């Protein structure tokens, strides 16, 4: 393990000048890790692990596999029907939150938290970033600029699904 210069953005983002925030917005896409097709990790209160998955429909079955037994069947059906299966698989950090970005003088020094990285549907990083963000921090407002595509429906679906899961 090496020392990484900089400060975690969750500690300093609200105090950064606007131009420095805009410089940091371009960091997405510059950091790609190994491509080892490891297991998928989905965590809210604790981690659920599975995969690798060859198709998105298998990933969705994995997500739905941990629904609460007491969740009404109609809500399970709504969750199942609302999840699309036509997204591309892309390699993501899996935890693209401010606490995992080290920056210094308007430059990204590196990303932390690679334990959740892997191949996920293209919306995954966007959804996980919004779910893991402290909405009181100004950085939250830059998500639309950081990510080339916004996945609002997938975000809403993930929040709904989260209300039905044990983990």
Q: Which sequence of SSEs, written as H and E, runs from N to C?
A: EHHEEHHEEEEHHH
- Give the overall average pLDDT: 79
Strand portion: 15-25%
Class based on secondary structure composition and strand pairing: alpha+beta
Query: Can you say what the CATH homologous superfamily is?
Result: Aminoglycoside phosphotransferase (APH), C-terminal lobe
Q: CATH top level?
A: Alpha Beta
Q: How many β-strand stretches?
A: 7
Quick summary:
With 167 residues, the protein is of the alpha+beta class. It is built from 7 helices and 7 strands, in the order E-H-H-E-E-H-H-E-E-E-E-H-H-H. The chain has one domain: Aminoglycoside 3'-phosphotransferase, Chain: A, domain 2 (Alpha-Beta Complex).
């Amino acid at each position: 393990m090496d020392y990484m210069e900089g400060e975690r953005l969750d500690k300093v983002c609200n105090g950064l000048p606007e131009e420095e925030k805009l410089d940091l917005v371009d960091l997405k896409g510059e950091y790609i890790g190994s491509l080892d097709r490891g297991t998928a990790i989905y965590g809210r209160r604790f981690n659920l692990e599975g995969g690798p998955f060859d198709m998105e429909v298998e990933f969705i079955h994995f997500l739905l596999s941990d629904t609460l037994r007491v969740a009404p069947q109609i809500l399970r059906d709504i969750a199942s029907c609302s999840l699309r299966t036509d997204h591309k698989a892309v390699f993501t950090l899996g935890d693209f939150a401010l606490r995992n970005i080290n920056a210094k003088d308007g430059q990204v020094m590196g990303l932390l938290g690679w334990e959740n990285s892997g191949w996920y549907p293209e919306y995954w990083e966007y959804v996980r970033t919004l779910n893991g963000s402290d909405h009181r921090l100004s950085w939250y407002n830059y998500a639309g600029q950081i990510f080339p595509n916004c996945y609002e429906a997938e975000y809403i679906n993930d929040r709904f699904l989260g209300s039905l899961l044990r983990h």
